[in-house]
Amino acid sequence: MVETLPALQIGEDERLDLENLATGAFFPVKGFMTREEALSVAHEMRLPTGEVWTIPILLQFREKPRVGPGDTVALLHGGERVALLHVAEAYELDLKALARAVFGTDSETHPGVARLYGKGPYALAGRVEVLKPRPRTPLEKTPEEVRAFFRQRGWRKVVAFQTRNAPHRAHEYLIRLGLELADGVLVHPILGAKKPDDFPTEVIVEAYQALIRDFLPQERVALLGLATPMRYAGPKEAVFHALVRKNFGATHFLVGRDHAGVGDFYDPYAAHRIFDRLPPLGIEIVKVGAVFHCPLCGGIASERTCPEGHREKRTAISMTKVRALLREGKAPPSELVRPELLPILRRGV
């Protein structure tokens, strides 16, 4: 039966997303979005049924698929039929208008916008049925499995930490803050596609494994992964990240300065303010300002813990700076990143 169905080729991003739809990671979204759903999410930050959601989950094509509502289509990846799509709608997108609504820009210099454009203007909506799940790494667990893991450990209060990058000192500060607030911390790096100049996923994971093994209480930190691409949608992606981590069982979510931002596209604190415009999400948002090294304070501090009079002495911490130094063959100072992690990070530049 499956072999006789019309078939459409999908990419790795779409395969990750269809599995997240199937496992409930993207709840309350249950399928690739209709035009009404996509536009409602993009413009109103809500599904037509009223639930908060901020990122369109789309199945796009560069050429118009020859299928329509009521059809069932096999989705191909790597030459295999990996899922079925029960088509609810076939439609065309105004990609520039959608980009402005979701990303706040239609510039192709924005990696999320470029990704949206590259996938094409045609979309299919509908529920998915997974035929062949991807082989999962030990870091990849379903929301149900992660919630069971937390129950097993007796973690009632769990802080989730989202990252697309290898750990520097500010990331470590945030994880330690989470440990002060909760029974455990979920370190949940993005495992899907990222910008070409971001660290490779395997380097990110190895660096966090070393940080947790050697410098954090291992019994209170869980390193798992979220298999979805990075969108770089700034404040709207911060909300998306929070909602997904709620589905994985987190009770609190850390939002730092310029969460999910890229370049100068977003105000550094837009990802804090967006939550003030939304109703309670069922997960507590922990907002943290800029984190830096202050020699007068004697270590890593934040805007809320360091006196204003120390401002001129502060050293900003960014992975962009760390990567630049590594590419020049220089060792980033210990104020930016732990020296013990440098052999791992050097393999990623």
Automatic annotation (TrEMBL):
What is the uppermost EC class here? transferase
Query: What UniProt keywords apply to this chain's record, in alphabetical order?
Result: ATP-binding, Nucleotide-binding, Nucleotidyltransferase, Transferase
- Catalyses which reaction(s): sulfate + ATP + H(+) = adenosine 5'-phosphosulfate + diphosphate
Q: Where is the Sulphate adenylyltransferase catalytic domain?
A: 139-347
Enzyme Commission code(s) on record: 2.7.7.4
Q: Which GO terms describe its molecular function?
A: ATP binding; sulfate adenylyltransferase (ATP) activity
Q: Where is the ATP-sulfurylase PUA-like domain?
A: 3-132
Name the domain of life. Answer: Bacteria
InterPro entries in the cross-refs: ATP-Sase_PUA-like_dom (IPR025980), PUA-like_sf (IPR015947), Rossmann-like_a/b/a_fold (IPR014729), Sulfurylase_cat_dom (IPR024951), Sulphate_adenylyltransferase (IPR002650)
Keyword presence, Chaperone: no
- Asked if the record carries the keyword Cytoplasm, the reply is no
A GO biological process this protein is involved in?
Answer: sulfate assimilation
Biochemical pathway: Sulfur metabolism; hydrogen sulfide biosynthesis; sulfite from sulfate: step 1/3
Per the record, the similarity remark reads: Belongs to the sulfate adenylyltransferase family.
Q: Which NCBIfam families match?
A: PRK04149.1 (NF003166), sopT (TIGR00339)
Q: Which PANTHER family match?
A: PTHR43509, SULFATE ADENYLYLTRANSFERASE
What protein is this chain from? sulfate adenylyltransferase
Tell me what organism the protein belongs to.
Thermus thermophilus
Q: Which gene encodes it?
A: sat
